[in-house]
Amino acid sequence: MLRLSELRLPLGHAPEALAPAIHARLGLEPADLLGFVIARRANDARRKSAIMMVYTLDLTLRDEDAVLARFPGDPNLKRRPDTDYRFVTRAEPSEDRRPVVVGAGPCGLFAGLILARMGFRPIILDRGKAVRERTKDTWGLWRRRELTPESNVQFGEGGAGTFSDGKLWSQVKDPRHLGRKVLEEFVAAGAPPEILTEAHPHIGTFRLVTMVESMRRTIEELGGEYRWQTRVDDVELERAPDGSRRLAALRLSTGETLAADTVVLAVGHSARDTFAMLHERGVHVEAKPFSIGVRIEHPQSWIDRARFGACAKHPDLGAAAYTLSHHCRDGRTVYSFCMCPGGRVVAATSEEGRVVTNGMSQYSRAEFNANSGLVVGIDPDRDYPGHPLASIALQRELESLAFKAGGSDYSAPAQTVGDLLARRPSTALGSVVPSYKPGVTPTDLSTCLPAFVLEAFREALPVFGRQIENYDHPDAVMTGVETRTSSPIRIRRGSDFQSVNVSGLFPAGEGAGYAGGILSAAIDGIKVAEAVALKMQADRPRQ
Ligand code: FAD
User: Fold this and answer.
1) The CATH number of domain 2-79, selected from 3.30.70.2700, 3.90.650.10, 3.90.180.10, 3.40.50.1950
2) What b-and-e string marks burial along 389-401, b requiring 16 or more CB atoms within 10 Å of the CB?
3) pLDDT tens digits for 521-537?
4) Cα of 127 to ligand 1 centre, how many Å?
């Protein structure tokens, strides 16, 4: 099979137009093309008056070699890459040791799934609840201002991205096509098959809920086991014969001590108590850069018009997304983060007395507003020096200030762009109605964000307004604070995926600082599962 990329057709073309376009591009007679499948479909809206659909296609040809020979050096015509996933090993039928996976987010879920498919029967622990019960608790904060600290947007089955836009793309290097494996498993669990071909696939919240349940059933059928409301509170370490330290057991919130020498630690970026415990036990933890800011909201129709012009609302385009970035004079970078077209801003705290924002949407992306994180990059040396966990103290401080600024009832502080640029507090909002539940309080965001963040916004917003018309409209609303953009720490691991100073501990996913987003966390889960399986086989006493 050959892969043809960058085949461009006008927006709104008939499906039947693809075959003649392939013939024309490659100079084929119709009989030379035996069949084709769409590998990827994107749109190019750089020229609003001539939006194009851009295809990558896998072609079955009568004579592949002859066609390839006619286009030597053509970067857009190659043999189709082998994207099939192959397990690195299989458990021996007699294998009775069980790896433990801590965290049932995308990373832990894929680590568990791959281990289960290889015949290792993982025990998956999560401090939160199974996803249906968790959904009720999460809505408790959004509807009744009642936070359940162990069961919320951050904690529980499916992890942090369960109530999200379900965006499924990532910029990580993926030479083994592990992202494809993730998407195929999602489709097998009920995701729409389009995610395999769309350039920027997304699933939306409701489907994610049923998908994680389906994947749980698969893992259980393969011999895996889940334990909910089971938090890892401590680790027991021991000396190996060579003097190095290794993991021996996990102490659980249930009171149990679970003997465990091979543990995937996929606890996400909000497991602050777990990070502190690991640091106290001497596991190598270091501060890393992350970003802080707000969620910004505009009516989706403004974004659609700015991006697609007269073609806004065309069914092939869907709700428009954007990515923006600006390098400020003081060296800081302001950028859009986790943009959710046609979605809503959600309360995403896991700790009492704190306010954190994030965004979600449904598959249809049909809600009134577009929202996106608007954040400023910060780094340990400049902004939280001295201690590996100083970043967490900073996050907590800003989240507590936001709680207070919102009125101390889980309302979030909000300010219009017009007021922010004019350096005055907001006392009322304009035409843009913020979607954050349980509600917002118009105020001055300088009460809960550092001055350098607001100055960076003042510099960047007019620039963004020139790229997306109305982006800096005075009525656009900014709701704070967005502090959990990625993990503020890294639990450093070596090339064998184990902690650099505690063997048997496999830090993984976003919390450990090795992923950012659902897809990259899931990919990391696969890689770590493979490392775990290979270690378990290497450790096996020879018969
Ligand atoms: P997590 O998903 O955070 O999972 C960690 C799990 O570990 C949790 O279930 C938690 O309960 C459990 N845990 C924590 N501590 C312990 C402990 N001590 N013992 C036992 N269990 C523990 N990313 C995207 O790519 N696309 C999006 O559209 C998107 N939208 C988002 C919207 C929201 C509202 C949020 C909050 C995040 C969003 N993200 C999105 C980010 C994405 O969710 C994360 O990058 C991803 O979930 C990280 O996966 P993970 O498995 O590493 O960690």
Assistant:
1) 3.30.70.2700
2) bbbbebbeebbbb
3) 999 999 999 999 999 99
4) 12
The predicted-structure confidence for 437-469, as pLDDT tens digits, reads as follows 999 999 999 999 999 999 999 999 999 999 999
- Is the pLDDT at 542 greater than 70, yes or no? no
Give 91-100 pLDDT, tens digit per residue.
998 899 999 9
Residue intervals of the chain classified under CATH 3.50.50.60 are 100-286+497-539
Q: Which residue, judged by its Cα, is nearest atom 45 of ligand 1?
A: 517
Q: How many CA atoms lie within 13 A of 47 on its CB side?
A: 7
Question: What spacing in Å lies between the alpha carbon of 168 and ligand 1's midpoint?
Answer: 14
Asked if residue 295 has its Cβ within 6 Å of ligand 1, the reply is no
Domain with CATH 3.30.70.2700 in the chain: 2-79
Q: What is the topology classification, in CATH, of domain 100-286+497-539?
A: FAD/NAD(P)-binding domain (3.50.50)
- Residue 163 has a pLDDT of 86
To which residue do tokens 């836009």 refer?
165
Contacts of 409 (CB under 8 A, 6+ apart): 145, 438
Amino acid code (one letter) for 93: P
Q: CA 306, CA 294: separation in Å to the nearest integer?
A: 22
pLDDT of residue 543 exceeding 60, the answer is no
Q: What is the mean pLDDT of residues 229-247?
A: 96
